[in-house]
Structure formats: structure tokens, C-alpha cells
Amino acid sequence: xxxTVGGPATxxxxxxxxxTAHNTAQDGEAPxxxxxxxKAGARRxxxxxxxxxxxxEGVHPYEQVEWERRDVVMTNWRDGTIxxxxxxVEFPRAWSVNATNIVTSKYFRGAVxxxxxxxxxxxxxxxxxxxxxxxxxxxxxxxxxxxxxxxxHELTWMLLHQVFSFNSPVWFNVGTASPQQVSACFILSVxxxxxSILNWYREEGLIFKGGSGAGLNLSRxxxxxxxxxxxGTASGPVSFMRGADASAGTIKSGGATRRxxxxxxxxxxxxxxxxxxxxxxxxxxKVRVLRDAGFDMDLGxxxxxxxxxxxxxxxxxxxxxxxxxxxxxxxFGLRARMTGEIIDRTDARKLFRGIAEAAxxxxxxxxxxxxxxxxxxxxxxxxxxxxxxxxxxxxxLDNSSCNLASLNLLKFLDADDRFDAETFAKAxxxxxTAMDISICFADFPTDPIADTTRRFRQxxxxxxxxxxxxxxxxxxxxxxxxxxxxxxITSLMTGAAYKRSAELAxxxxxxxxxxxxxxxHQRVVRKHAAANDGIRSFPASNPVQQLASQTWKQCQxxxxxxxxRNAQASVLAPTGTIGLMMDCDTTGIEPDLALVKFKKLxxxxxMQIVNQSVRxxxxxxxxxxxxxxxxxxxxxxxxxxxxxxxxxxxxxxxFDCAMGDRTIAPMGHVRMMAAAQPFLSGAISKTxxxxxxxxxxxVERIYxxxxxxxxKALAIYRDNCKVGQPLSAGKGGDKKASGxxxxxxxxxxxxxxxxxxxxxxxxxxxxxxFTVGGAEGYLTAGSYPDDGLGEIFVKLGKQGSTLAGxxxxxxxxxxxxxQYGIPLEFYVSKFSNLRFxxxxxxxxxxxxxxxSVLDYLFRRLALDHLPYExxxxxxxxxxxxxxxxxxxxxxxxxEKLDLDEFRSSVPTTVEKKDPAVEPAPAEVGSSTExxxxxxxKAADAPLCMTxxxxxxxxxxxxxxxxxxxxxxxx
Length: 970
Known about the structure:
Blueprint: H1 17-26, H2 31-44, E1 67-75, E2 82-92, H3 97-106, H4 121-138, H5 145-160, E3 164-166, H6 168-173, E4 185-187, H7 194-209, E5 213-217, H8 237-250, E6 262-267, H9 273-292, E7 313-318, H10 320-328, E8 331-335, E9 342-347, H11 348-362, E10 366-369, H12 370-375, E11 400-408, H13 421-441, H14 447-456, E12 459-464, H15 466-472, H16 480-508, H17 514-533, H18 543-562, H19 577-581, E13 596-600, E14 606-610, H20 612-620, H21 625-638, H22 666-676, E15 687-690, H23 696-708, E16 713-718, E17 765-772, E18 775-783, E19 789-796, H24 802-819, H25 824-831, E20 840-844, E21 847-850, H26 853-865, H27 868-874, H28 879-890, H29 899-905, E22 917-919, H30 927-935, E23 952-954, E24 957-959
Parallel strand pairs: 4-5, 5-6, 6-7, 7-10, 11-12, 15-16
Antiparallel strand pairs: 1-2, 3-11, 4-11, 8-9, 10-16, 13-14, 14-22, 17-18, 18-19, 20-21, 23-24
Helix pairs in contact: 1-2, 4-5, 4-13, 5-13, 7-8, 9-11, 11-23, 13-16, 15-20, 16-17, 16-18, 16-22, 17-18, 20-21, 25-26
């Protein structure tokens, strides 16, 4: 079948009613009805009239922002080596350092250091938007050239102001000499032949090489319990998984250091299902044995490559029949792949328990609910949905792909922190138009994927920052109000996307497979609209749900006349790297990680900041300004709101996060997914985190409830269930509380103890005399010969006095800590600014005032023994350094600074220090590490293989805040 609705060889703008009727009738529609539809379509095929939403006529978006030049120097947090450097890049002043670094290092094209290298965000946006505009004009999307220009400006404005972002492949490839691949999500297929299996390996390799991931269902492959035509026994899908896993582990994704991402699915009625369920759990047991024997089994360790099946996410595709058998406690039949006959029976509850036990042990397998997935399928006449992409949000036909884009929800809060539903819907329409245009010029890794994608034109619009939006508006993530708002926003998004898709069908024609699937597509749209009417927690007058209802009504009317341009419209992706590009606080559908997070600063250094959503939430909850400031200051110090001054206990839940002292319960995550799922064409990339103490029964309950609530897919992760993850401090071995059918497993934890590095008999030292608030003393600091402070002696007070004895003991404690490897900057961050007597003026020109003796001592030690870069982070400078800063800011031109002029330039009122902002501890490099420091235990997240910082969860994978790398999602 040829592409008749928008392929490069088709002039869609001049399609006649006769041709359209002929093509439509070929797909099974009555010729008379097709001709009538085609005539109506031909009258409307004059292109889109695009209206301005964000821009002003006659003013280019670039003229409305303030630009500045920055230097991007990205280092490995652990050893200080430079990973990437590009100086003088141009970005809007409002963009954060992190967003600047990530866009420059990830998305700018051209060899670093060459004249062809992109050096401005303008060049990047123009490269992408210009390509979309030209393709839209070429394929008849716009009514006039003026409409094309408005489209160009609107898209540019939204990207410039971080309102949305395309998925990473768009930024990598569009407008370059490389293949124009725009999709991040791929689904493959494999049949029960050796040729097909070997082709599976090849196709996966090509996709991995391009930096993307793929998923597929292996259920067509005969089980190890079935015979081959030659008379032998089949190998079974699990054996072939071994080869594919080795291939994925060898081909690094896009030439980067992270491994490829893949999803492997097996149907629950496959005779080898038990072997499939146990594959990764058995390998995890192997990891424990090898680790205890002294092998390096950490993530990225030298010996971890000997473990199999670690490069894929595994999921079991369960049917409604199986889930009902679990509820009723009956047997379930396992079917031969070739004949479909039942060749074995199993206890449904026993198999379900096995799935839960394996997930409890190693987080795999996840669950995909086949009945729900295919009940919401828009094109069932063209094939069933049998698999998903690696992150489990894209689910459609085999050998297909999906390009994604995500909106930043916080950008749609108005001055009164109300969600601007109308502007949001208009933004969705513009973005969907651009996403569909991209399929006209896109390249694909294989011919079957290209054919399916061009015929069905699957899109995946979604959003990020939901968690931040809910907190900012005073809604608890796990609450009826929070779920209602999330559901209404998701409903409006998909309704507006399908409405625009129907309008596009009237301009450039519906997707090629629509006529054959028209009834099913219309049925699914009606299901979305009915689910929208079922959101009962909001009053009928609520503007978000009210507009969503109107949009779905218009969507159905236009779609029944025109059809739809796209077989699917929306998913909720992890929004890893692009979430950082948009400066989002939270990714995808996730809640906030914690209330206090890590932030890099322009010019170097870093801060720990209280999330801006906290203050906005307090304002929206009715707290007075003074109360809100006190609570924010309390959060900055403690990291939570428990017992904060003036805080109402009933408001605690608004500030619950994914990690920290108050965490959202696992079922709260499931309920939020259920609130959004009825309004998505695809599914949701999300892992439900469970505490280490969770039981196998808890996992069963989660998986069962996910089916009852209508989810399409679900995966869990239990704290510390993987050996390759860091173990929480102070905890013993894993305890397997899985009921009477499982044994308690004893796990040996290998402790890594610090080693004391003693000073030699003869070592250099320096003594400083000091006076603080009239109290005199002496500080002696001894160093290692190869540099580095190793001991201190403090003489304060009369010999034999209590004060002298305490200072002697304190000195010994600090000295031993230094010799065991505790960094000096850690002590400086803890003891500087301590307030107690004696305090006041000193006789040290570098430290004129001290809030205590310890404050002075550690400031002096920092000045003498820490490099300038670390002291910048701590805010400690010598007298000469401070003078140089003043001169550079006010200028001296070689002349002595006029103190009177300087004093007159200083405001008479001192600006109050923001209690929400403090210097970040020197040893912290990410929000996850900051949270670890506050909680006193390690988080279950890997270190980034690029820059060494601790990653944070993002959907069903992990994201590095430092450099934008991900563990598998785009």
C-alpha cells in the first residue's frame, strides 16, 4: 500500500475528491460515502489559518528576551577532569546554568572548536523550526505564507521560553546532514523463524546505534516445550533473549557510555512464562554470590558484564482472563504458539505470586494489562498491540515508532496561580501540528517502521512538571483534588490534540489506515470523552474540565466528518534530558523528589534552594507573608515541613515528596496514574517506588489494583532490591517478607571501612595567633608532606581549665577525622557561622568578625588550606580577594577607591537574605546527593557514567542533573 496522505511524493494540497474517494473506498468504505467525504475534504483543503497566541505581529521572539554570553565547562564531579568545554555560547539570561550546559553539550551540532559548531540557542531553534516550517509549506499545511510565519514565530517563542520541548532525536538530527530521525520510541516484531530472530538482533542494533531504544513481544516464538518440524525441541524465547542481551550490552547507545534501552514482553499464557519471570531474579542471586566473593558487581563495575538479561526491562503481558483467574483462585491454560491449544495448566495465583516475588527481588518483571491496552486501541483492524517501547509509554502496532514532545505545565499558571486552560489548549494545537509535519520529512531505521509510521502517523504529546504544579497550587499529590486537576489537564491535552488532528485531516487527509479503522477510532474517542465526564471531584464550572468537555465535543464532531490525521496523540514520557532543558522541577507525571534541591550558579559554585513551589503553595493555602517566610526558612534547615512554625498539620500532605521524611505511599502513585490513564492514547512511564520493608503481598496488591484501576502498564522498584545499587547506611541484609511460600534469604553485606593515613614523624606545620572578642589563642595546623591538612592543635584558655581541655579533645577529634579522609571543606561547612561566645572583632585582616571561636578557626583553615574554587562555594575570601571583587564591580582604573562615593552607592536599606537559598555543601553534586546528606542514607540510584554525579529517578529510568545523560530514555 502506498502513502497517499503526506508522503514526500504526494502533493496533498492538490488531491482531488475522486482520488480521495478511490483510496478511501479501497480501505473498505462504501464508494458513495467516500466520495461525499472526499468532496467535503476537498473543499476544506486550503491549509490551516494560524492565530497568534504568544507573539506580537512585527516583533520577532528573539527581540523580546535579554541575551548573554556564557562559558560552558562541564567537569567530572569526582575527579575534576573536564568532560566538555565551549566558551562564549549565547542564551537568554532567564535560562539556568544547567539548561545552558545540557543544551550546549547535547544538542549543539558541529565539531567542538570548529567554525561550523553552533554557539547560540538561536541557531539551534532556527535549525529545527526552519525545517518544520519549510516542510509544512511544502506539504500544504498552511493557508498562506503569513500563516507559516506565524507558526514559525509561535513555535520559536514557546521553545525560547521553555514552554515545551521536542524529544531529543529532533534536536540531534533535524536540519543536519544526518538522517532526519525524529522518533525516540520504537516497537519491533519477531516471528518463529531463525531469519526473523536474526533480523531482530540486526534491527535492534541499528536502533541502539542511533541512540534510541526498542521493545518487542517474543510470544510468537515457540516454547521449549514444543517440537520443531525437524523433530527436535525448540530452544524457547528465553534462550534467544540471551543473545539479544549480549548484543545490547556491546552496542553502546549512540556511541555514548550508557547502555542500550530495550523492553522484552512475554504473554502470560506462553508455556515458558515461568522461566521468563525468573530470569532476572536468578541472575540477581548470582550477583549476590559473586559480590560476596569479592567481584566488582556495582553498576558499571568490571565484573557486572558476566550477568545476563540486565540490558532489558522485562514485562509480562497479562490478560483479563488471567487476572480474573487470580481473583477466583482457578487454573489458567498455557497455549502452544503454533496451534493455540492448551498444552499445560498452571495455578493462576501461584504464577501471579511468582511474578510478584521476582519483582520484589529485582524489580522485574513489570506488568502490561493486555485487555485494557487493546480495549483503547484505535486501529485494531490493522493488528493488535502486543508490545511497548523500553519505558512502556508508547504502545501501538508492531514495527512502528512515535515522536514525542512535552509541555512544561508550570508555564501555564497565571499571575493568580490559576491554570490557563485556553492558552494550554492552543499551545497543544500548535505543537501537534509541528509533530505531524515532522513525519513528512522524517527518516526511520528500518523500512517496516517507516511504512507503518507513515501510514498511521503516531504522535506522543505529553507534559512535565505535574508534581511542581500540584504543590504550587496547594494540591497534595495523593489527594482527590490533585488527581482531579491532573486528570482534567490530561483530558484537555489529549482532547485538543485529537481535535487538531481532526482539523489536519480536513486539510491534508486522515492517516492512511483510518478508513479501515474508523469505527474503532471513533469508539475510543467517545471513551475518552465519557471518562472526562466522569471526573467528579471538580465542580462543573471548573474552567479546565469545562474546556475539556467542549473540546472533546468539537473533536468528535470534526473527527466524524474528517477522520483523524493521527492514529494516536498522547503519552506520558519520562522527560529526562528535555525536562532539564525546560528547567522543570519534576519530570513527567512524577512528584517532587524533595523540598530542597541542588542548583548550579552562573560563574561557578552551587546552592541548595527550597523549591519555589513551596512558597507558592503556602501563599495559595492562605498563609501570611511572615508565616510563609518562617516556614520556608524551617524547610531550608530541616528539609521538611513537619513541626514547622505556624504550619497546619492538615497541610503536611501538600508537601509530600518521592523521597525524604514524608514520602508518598506507593498506592498514591498508582492512583495518580489511574487519574491520567483514561485520557492518554498510550500509557505512562513511571516506576512505583516501594520501601525496603514492603512485602511480596504488597507487590501483588499493587499489580492487582493497577489492573482494577484501568492502567495499561505498571512497574515497581523496592528500595535496595538490587545488589548493583548502593546500600542504605545502617541497614542490614535484605529480609524477604514474602509469606509462607518463600524462605528468608540471608545476605552478607560487604562493608567498606575507611583507612587512617597517619602523618609522618616529621611534618610541616604553621602556627597562627588570634584574638576573637578579646579571647586570645593559638592555632597550629600540621600538613602531610605531599600537601593536605592532617592535624590541628588549638590552645585557648589557661592550661588545666575546662575550656582548654575541651579544645584539646576537639582538636584530636578533628585531626583523626582528617586522617581518615573526611574533607576539610565538610568541617568548614559545618562549623563556620556557629554562634556562641566569645565572638566579635578579631585581629586577623582576612577574618575581621567571627560569630564564635570555631567560626574563626575554620574560616582561617579554609583560607590557608582550601583552593579558591572550593572557597567560592563556601563564600570564604581573603581581604585581597574581597578588594579585587569590589574593584571589579565598581572599577578603580588604578586609582584609589573613593569610599564616600562607594558608600553613597550602597542602598540605605539592607536587602533581606533569602532564607530559601544557602551555599550547597562542597561534597554535593546533585539533588539526590543533597537529599542523601540530609537523610543520612544512600539513595537507590546509579552514578552517572559521564560526569560521576548521583542520578535521580525519571519515569522508569534515571536522569543526571549534571550533564543530562539518562540510563535509557531520551
